[in-house]
Design a protein that fits this description.
about 210 residues, alpha+beta, GMP Synthetase, Chain A, domain 3, 2 domains, 4-stranded mixed beta sheet, 5 helices, 9 strands, about 30% strand, globular
Length: about 210
């Protein structure tokens, strides 16, 4: 059986730039070895400097214990590699309920949910689309969007044109996320919940 397309849809199409890209190159193999997937890395000036790593298991779940395990595995690597200048705060978190969509498979997993998509360049003068996801097919994200005078239509957006995409926080999405978490029988991190260094008993790293 040829699993080429299945593998391709599980690869991230949205990648970091600059420092976050360098960190992602270090983090992703570690997460893979632990059975997790990288969702996104962000470096911000919050609390001095914060490195936030969003991760999840292939089934979309992640617990506080998982975050602690990831932090303990990644912190020593950051210490040795010395990529981040100045002290920083490391946060390991879930993608949240209104999660970013970074893999073609995300659009399949969350088909039926409402999402916002922004393109790298406009198509017929438009860069932003919002509507219900209809899946992923032939290299395109399918979304039912309001096209103004044309009404609501299902259109395909080439995945390589997508700059960012994320789910829209709605009552329906919250119910769906809670239902999935219950079905998995796991105590997942909720929307916006982070496992920060204080909770994980790790300190800010100086001089990195």
């Amino acid at each position: 059986m040829d699993n080429t397309n299945e593998v391709a849809t599980s690869d991230r199409f949205i990648e970091e730039t600059g420092l976050a890209s360098e960190l992602a190159a270090l983090v992703e193999p570690v997460l893979d070895s632990l059975g997790f997937r990288l969702v996104r890395i962000e470096v911000s000036g919050r609390d001095g400097k914060t490195v936030q790593i969003m991760a999840e298991r292939p089934d979309g779940s992640i617990t506080i214990d998982d975050c602690e395990m990831i932090s303990k595995a990644i912190s020593p690597i950051f210490d040795v590699q010395d990529i981040v200048s100045d002290s920083y705060r490391l946060e390991i978190s879930s993608p949240g309920i209104d999660r970013p969509l970074v893999r073609p498979s995300d659009f399949v997993d969350w088909a039926g949910s409402e999402a916002k998509i922004e393109l790298r360049a406009p198509i017929e003068g438009r860069k932003r689309f919002r509507g219900h996801l209809e899946g992923f097919e032939d290299g395109e994200v399918l979304i039912e969007a309001d096209l103004g005078e044309e009404g609501r239509k299902v259109i395909g957006l080439a995945v390589e044109l997508i700059a960012s995409a994320r789910l829209v926080l709605t009552d329906e999405l919250i119910r769906e996320a809670l239902s999935r978490a219950k079905a998995k029988g796991k105590e997942q991190l909720g929307d916006g919940v982070e496992a920060d260094p204080d909770e994980l008993k790790t300190d800010d790293v100086e001089g990195l």
